[in-house]
Amino acid sequence: GNGDRDFVLGDGRVSAFSAGFLLDRRDIRIDPSRGTRASFTIEQGLNFLGGESSFTKTDLDLRAYTPIGKATIKGGQPKLVLAGRVVLGRSFQQLPTFEQYYIGGSD
Questions:
Q1: Rounded distance, CA 72 to CA 95, Å?
Q2: Helical (H) or strand (E) element with 38
């Protein structure tokens, strides 16, 4: 039916609540050279608030930074930093197209 077409093309409306937790222990937020950052978010899509789908979606984002070598200026930032990131996501019902997980992303 027409509902299937809207689901595949990404049309529709989502009403959702979300909550999250962030632990940021990086030395400098904009350009870190050491430390960690961890975030967890849960989103609950609900039909009764005008949304067209009901779902639960969770996201975990872990990042770590460690300097390689020393800074060229005393007290300065190191020239080389090893950075790592792991992103995990899980949904518990069928997600609308525009809420689904894709490889890559904006961040």
A1: 49
A2: strand 35-45
Q: Which residues pair with 20 in a beta bridge?
A: 41
pLDDT digits (tens, 9 = 90+) for 95-104: 777 777 777 6
Query: How far apart are the C-alpha atoms of 7 and 107, rounded to whole Å?
Result: 25
64 in Cβ contact with 84 (< 8 Å): yes
Whats the size of the chain, residue-wise? Answer: 107
Cα 18 to Cα 102: distance, rounded to the nearest angstrom: 20
- Spatial contact of 55 and 93, defined as CB atoms under 8 Å apart: yes
d(CA 57, CA 91): 4
Alpha-carbon torsion (12, 20, 22, 64), positive or negative: negative
First to last CA, the chain: 36
**What global pTM score does this model have?**
0.74
Q: Which two tokens stand for residue 98?
A: 């525009």
